[in-house]
Automatic annotation (TrEMBL):
Ranges of residues in domain Glycoside hydrolase family 3 N-terminal: 38-364
Enzyme Commission code: 3.2.1.21
Record protein name field: beta-glucosidase
Domain Glycoside hydrolase family 3 C-terminal: from-to ranges: 398-615
Organism: Deinococcus xianganensis
Keywords annotated in UniProt: Glycosidase, Hydrolase, Signal
Length: 727
């Protein structure tokens, strides 16, 4: 009997671990605490200190014996680990114990026994922990066009975060990827605003259903940096802001995201961290966000050192807090910021009411996560999510070229080579154990990754033999190539993040191009598998001679087996491009929703948004549209016209009436998708909300507004097309 009662209690606690406290109850808790806090207490609550302030030597090491004094001095409301910063040992149990100890110290030494909430970048799984499962980066999930899968990945990530005593992740990225040269392009779900919005909504729902606070980042305009340089200025009109960059944030806010992170860059010449128009009028007012707004790394100090828009930290702190920032991620010098904010309040540059507002949001945030009710009690045990990671990787894979049906590989001698054939670093990309990826920095841990070459060897079907040689052994490799029936060469980008991952030429390293040319010169069929966080431009003499080209994105820990299944034909290629693949650098900026201009029709890209081949063929026909009070229901018949099962993915596009301003020739507004048997047909329908058919109407300068314009709308999906009049 005792055992059954204990089991019921354990189950109840486990169920509660994933539940967020209601906004009303959380705010009531917070309001009861706020009057008990002094000015210094409040300043502490709105400061984010790095966890290394509490460890020996300020590095990955045990907690210092005098860490309690640091808590009493800083009174931090939030704690941060940077990408790759970890306790010792960097194990699930090590993380759970480390954070539980910090939680205990915070409660014992912070004002009103307040715990400090811990935030981390868990952007494709719990990526700082070598033992954790890592999933495809967002760009790959965008290629799956399956929000349910994105939600499943987010929920699994939340479960692991809770087990490690982490309750707040700086994810998902809600930026729209508009320049593939940008180092954070792979962190976006793609280029199309409303399709990205669906993914963001799913990610927020999955994370917060698992009891972890989601963070929409980076508000806003971060995805259009000039020259493709990270943290560069973005020039964005009111129309582009509303039609392109806000829809994913609006979707995430509607999904209940508890926090938002500000853009590190500037928009129209104003640093976002000092822009009341963006952070208060737009985010709080127009979008109705009521949660916690956090800065990005050190970005208030950058107002002085980088942007030179403010003369000292007091004025920079005042400008940022008054613009709307609630919590400053101040890893380098917490004391300097706290002194500056104190002076700003005491001299009237920041009102006590504004500081109270920010503090109340911090307290409410903690209350919603249940941190004010009980100490952290994570199990320190991660779930085995390898099957999910493999399914996720398989769903992303996109076949771009297969001119002679070289794929699938059914027999013969296969030679596999290339720098990505057995590289955890390339396969995982940035934000993997270390901020810049595996092998970067001073983090020695390498996670267990199922890579391509071992997977091809281990799962080769009868009649297929596989050998592998590194590209560094060029003479032996070229000799072996002459005896192969198919050469699979895995190429890709070195891992990186933010500005260090910028790729201004959209190119592979020269050595990899030489490798491809050397292998093509053997006359044998060459299948290139590309692991990259963006479209890359191959020289025409390489591109035109490939017998196969597979875009694998950054597929995560189970990418190797997923690729082997697809290359051998045990599975297909369900992924479709979530971006427009340019033919040359001059086509950067050629998006699927680019309007007609005075210069004439836009050029054709190498591959359009939504492009992808498979081992089967499909068609979408008989599109019908039915207007309703809140939107338009579109239905089409999807048919698998081939001889193999496969996933049919078709973008639904809308052409809008004239608005007085340039309109996209056709705007992607949704996706019709079904997995079908050979010859199977299925009617699939979705409802397109009216806002996805609305236009931002206004002149080049001055006010604008959303309008559902009266007139004829044309919706298309595959071979199907239908028109209707609205409203």
């Amino acid at each position: 009997m005792k055992r059954s009662v204990l089991a019921l209690l354990t189950a109840a606690l486990a169920a509660h671990a994933g539940a967020l406290t209601s906004q009303a109850a959380a705010e009531a808790q917070a309001r009861a605490i706020l009057p008990r806090l002094t000015l210094d207490d409040k300043i502490g609550q709105v400061s984010m200190a790095h966890v290394f302030r509490f460890t020996e030597g300020g590095r990955s090491a045990p907690i210092r014996a005098d860490a309690d004094a640091t808590f009493r001095a800083l009174r931090p409301g939030t704690l941060l680990n940077g990408g790759g910063d970890a306790p010792q040992p960097n194990t699930p149990r090590g993380w759970a114990d480390f954070l539980a100890r910090l939680d205990t110290l915070g409660r014992a030494n912070n004002p009103a026994n307040l715990p400090a909430v811990f935030g981390t970048d868990a952007v494709h799984g719990v990526n700082n922990v070598p033992a954790a499962t890592l999933y495809p980066h967002n760009l790959g999930l965008g290629a799956a066009f399956d929000p349910a899968l994105t939600r499943e990945v987010a929920l699994a990530t939340a479960q692991d975060l809770r087990a490690l005593n982490m309750g707040w992740t700086f994810a998902p990225v809600a930026d729209v990827g508009r320049d593939p040269r940008w180092g954070r392009y792979y962190e976006t779900f793609g280029e199309s605003p409303w399709l990205v919005a669906d993914q963001v909504e799913a990610s927020v729902d999955g994370l917060q259903s698992g009891g972890v606070a989601a963070t929409l980042k980076h508000f806003t305009g971060y995805g259009l940096p000039s020259l493709g340089m990270d943290r560069a200025n973005a020039e964005i009109s009111q129309r582009a802001m509303h039609e392109v960059f806000l829809p994913p944030f609006r979707a995430g806010i509607r999904a209940g995201a508890l926090s938002v992170m500000a853009n590190s860059g500037s928009v129209n010449g104003v640093p976002v961290h000092a822009s009341p128009a963006l952070l208060t009028d737009l985010l709080r007012g127009e979008l109705g966000f009521g949660g916690l707004l956090v800065s990005d790394w050190n970005d208030i100090e950058r107002l002085i050192t980088t942007y030179r828009t403010h003369t000292d930290l007091v004025r920079a702190a005042a400008a940022s807090v008054n613009a709307g920032i609630d919590v400053y991620m101040v890893p380098n010098n917490v004391e300097a910021y706290q002194n500056a904010l104190r002076e700003a309040v005491q001299t009237g540059l920041v009102s006590e009411a504004r500081l109270d507002e920010a503090t109340l949001r911090v307290l409410t945030f903690k209350a919603r996560l249940g941190l004010l009710d009980a100490p952290l009690a994570g199990s320190g045990v991660l779930n085995d999510h390898r099957d999910l990671a493999r399914r996720a990787a398989a769903a992303t894979l996109t076949l771009l070229e297969n001119p002679a049906d070289t794929l699938p590989i059914r027999k013969g001698r296969v030679l596999v080579t290339g720098p990505a054939m057995d590289s955890a670093a390339i396969q995982l990309g940035g934000w993997s154990v270390n901020w810049q990826g595996v092998g970067k920095g001073n983090v020695p841990d390498v996670p267990k990754v199922a890579t391509l070459a071992p997977a091809l060897k281990a799962s080769a079907p009868a009649g297929v033999t596989v050998s592998a040689l590194p590209e560094t052994k060029r003479p032996q490799l070229l000799t072996a190539a002459k005896g192969a029936d198919v050469i699979v060469v895995a190429v890709g980008e070195a891992p990186g993040a933010e500005w260090q991952a910028n790729n201004p030429a959209l190119s592979l390293p020269d050595g990899q191009i030489t490798l491809l040319r050397d292998l093509l010169a053997t006359g044998k069929p060459v299948v290139a598998v590309l692991m990259a966080g963006r479209p890359l431009i191959l020289p025409s003499d390489v591109q035109s001679r490939l017998s196969g080209l597979v875009m694998a994105y950054l597929p995560g820990t189970q990418g190797g087996p997923a690729l082997a299944d697809a290359l051998y034909g045990r599975a297909g290629f369900p992924g479709r491009l979530p971006f427009t693949w340019p033919d040359s650098l001059t086509q950067v900026g050629l998006w699927s929703d680019r309007p007609s201009e005075g210069a004439g029709e836009p050029p054709l890209p190498l591959y359009p948004l939504g492009y992808g081949l498979d081992y089967t063929t499909s068609v979408a026909r008989d599109l019908t549209v039915t207007p309703g009070p809140d939107g338009v229901t579109a239905q089409a018949t999807l048919t698998n016209t081939g001889e193999r099962a496969g996933t049919v993915t078709v973008l639904l596009r809308a052409s809008l009436p004239a608005s007085g301003a340039l309109q996209a020739t056709s705007r992607p507004v949704g996706v019709l998708r079904a997995t079908l048997k050979p010859g199977e047909s299925r009617a699939v329908q979705i409802t397109v909300p009216n806002e996805r058919l609305s236009s931002w109407v206004g002149d080049a300068y001055g006010p604008g507004a959303w309008q559902l314009l009266p007139g004829q709308y044309t919706l298309s999906a595959g071979d199907g097309k239908a028109t209707l009049s609205l409203p």
